[in-house]
Amino acid sequence: MRTPLLAGNWKMYKTTGEARELIEALLHGLGDVSDREVLVCPPFTALQTVGALLAGTPVKLGAQDAYTETQGAYTGAISPLMLRDLGCTYVIAGHSERRAIFGEDDALINRKVRAALAHGLLPIMCVGETKPQRDAGQAETIVVAQVRAGLAGMTPEQIGQIVIAYEPVWAIGTGDTATPDDAQAMHATIRRTLAELAGTDVAATVRIQYGGSVKPDNVDELMAQPDIDGALVGGASLKADSFLRIVHFH
Ligand code: PGA
After folding, report:
1. pLDDT tens across 61-105, in order?
2. Which terminus of the chain is less hemmed in, N or C, by CB atoms within 10 Å?
């Protein structure tokens, strides 16, 4: 019912030449992906190069962030309209690095999600607790609050178009993954929250990705969980062989 979404978040890696090499290797080994969705989110500077290589393939193009406005005097910002223009279909919103390093809060992320939807981009909204929050037993409270604030004021129709990525901050880039049981428990909590916001029918269709040190050797057990509908992959998406193994999870 929910098509798994395997997404590579390249972060601030890959020049255009390196991006080209990676995409060529990915496409070479891609094989049959008819029962899943594959997405790459290169840095802005490689979107055009990657988009041209992906044309006519099943791999989709996404961006890692977009500002809230369509155009204007916003030095350094990129608008959802510009991303659509380059062939993007997805955009990440509220990644924990945007929250922690660039000071983004739930209110801004809410505006970014809305702006993306308004321009026909599918947002992947990231949520997740820090290590101190988990140790203090606050993980669920924090994540539920992030989901509620990020989606505040949206209609069930809007919520139905959004992908949520649960990415515990302590698991990102650390090699320290949530156990499949812990991840499943949080995904179920997120789905209950979505049901409260948008009804059970919509909640049943929303894809909830897990992110945080997803690797070839842990993807299968994560994807076996009933409420894990895909992966948002950082480090392991930077090499074709590891990303392909994740894409082809069993
Ligand atoms: P990681 O990053 O796979 O390198 O932990 C995931 C992410 O930040 O989206």
Report:
1. 999 999 999 999 999 999 999 999 999 999 999 999 999 999 999
2. N
Select which of 97, 104, 129, 167 is catalytic.
Answer: 167
Q: 8: part of which helix (H) or strand (E)? A: strand 5-9
What single DSSP character describes residue 44? G
Quickly tell me which residue has 């029962």 as its tokens: 35
Residue 176 CA, chain-centre distance (Å), reads: 19
Cα–Cα distances (Å) from 143 to 60, 93, 127, 130, 218, in that order, read 28, 15, 6, 10, 23
Decide: 230 in ligand 1 pocket, CB within 6 A.
no
Q: Report, as an integer, the average pLDDT of 203-229.
A: 98
Instruction: Quote the pTM value.
Output: 0.97
CATH class entry, domain 5-247: alpha beta
The reported pLDDT for the residue numbered 188 is: 98
Is residue 178 within 6 Å of ligand 1 at its C-beta? no
Q: Is 37 a catalytic residue?
A: no
pLDDT of res. 156:
98
- Ligand 1, atom 7, lies closest to the CA of 234
